[in-house]
Amino acid sequence: MSELYPLKFETVLKEKVWGGTALVTRYNKKATGSLHIGESWELSAVADNQSIISNGFLAGNNIEELIEVYMGDITGDSIYEKFGNEFPLLIKFIEALEDLSVQVHPNNDLAKKRHNAYGKTEMWYILESKPGSKIYTGFKDGVTREIYEEAVRSGRIEELMNVENVNAGDTFFTPAGRVHAIGAGIVLVEIQQTSDITYRIYDWNRKSSGKEKRELHTDMALDAIDFDQSGTNKIRLEPVLNKTENLVNCEFFNTNIISFNNAIDKEYYFNDSFVVYICLEGEFSICWDENSEKVTKGETVLLPAMIKEITLKPLNEARLLEVYINSENPI
After folding, report:
1. Shortest CA distance to 299 belongs to which of 267, 276, 265, 317?
2. What are the CA-CA distances from residue 285 to residues 11, 62, 292 (Å)?
3. Active site residue 214
4. Which domains does the chain have, with CATH numbers?
5. CA-based end-to-end distance of the chain
6. CA dist., res. 214 & res. 205, Å (int)
7. Which is catalytic among the residues 200, 206, 214, 236?
8. Would you call 142 exposed, middle or buried from its count of C-beta atoms within 10 A (0-12, 13-18, 19+)?
9. CA proximity to 265, closest of 310, 316, 307, 322
10. pTM greater than 0.90
11. Of 114, 131, 175, 222, which is most buried by a Cβ count within 10 Å?
12. How far apart are CA 115 and CA 245, in angstroms?
């Protein structure tokens, strides 16, 4: 099935009261109407939010239909064996003009038991941050279940949170069970397991309709929280030009960053997986079998697993995230 090619998708924009204009004005998302865009779902297999292919002869098909036909040629044979027609990752751009709620996600075991779904381990790559912006991630050292339960009763959860100052280029890895919140003034890329399960544990005493506080999931969150997930988890890595450098390597995904102004040849024979490219800056072309596909800032592209040799050619200096699943990992 040599007709497969690098796939682009129609983005799904999510209007949020805490959203803004950056995703439209600086990351080339096409919005009609409101510009309070909080999230842009780039590649999704979540039910009712299936990504639709936007380029080539497969345009109009969704990601599940694509995998149903091409199976392991899209995702990799080992990944197809595990996930079937469900694409295993969810890719988003997020802009937060306000602090988002403090939340936690269940791991695979708990999510399977409660929701018959996958858990949610995720990472954030910070694209922009205003002066003073913060990420809330994990508890301060020494916070126990008992201390947490007392803070819930007394409304003091924010006092327990580990707070990190944020700059563009920072990475935060958030395993399932680690409490977290995106702070105000931040634009980021989120890479996560395909899951939409969130337990909200604190919402800064905000009200959703001007009358009532938003629903919390305190009881469900308690068993999901890993109290050993404390202290700093910020990753700061300055990219080296024309070199692939690893940011996160976990059982659910591997994410590298590449900044380049020269052509880079890539071979993926070592791995039985798709590859996702997320263009953060500049523009480049993916070249394969005498074909090419141009990728611009803000675009996300899925390289099918059957395409093992490509060249990345920058049209000017470009920066991208390269994401795949290590097929030898027990996902």
Report:
1. 276
2. 20, 24, 6
3. no
4. 7-236 (2.60.120.10), 243-324 (2.60.120.10)
5. 27
6. 8
7. 200
8. exposed
9. 310
10. yes
11. 175
12. 36
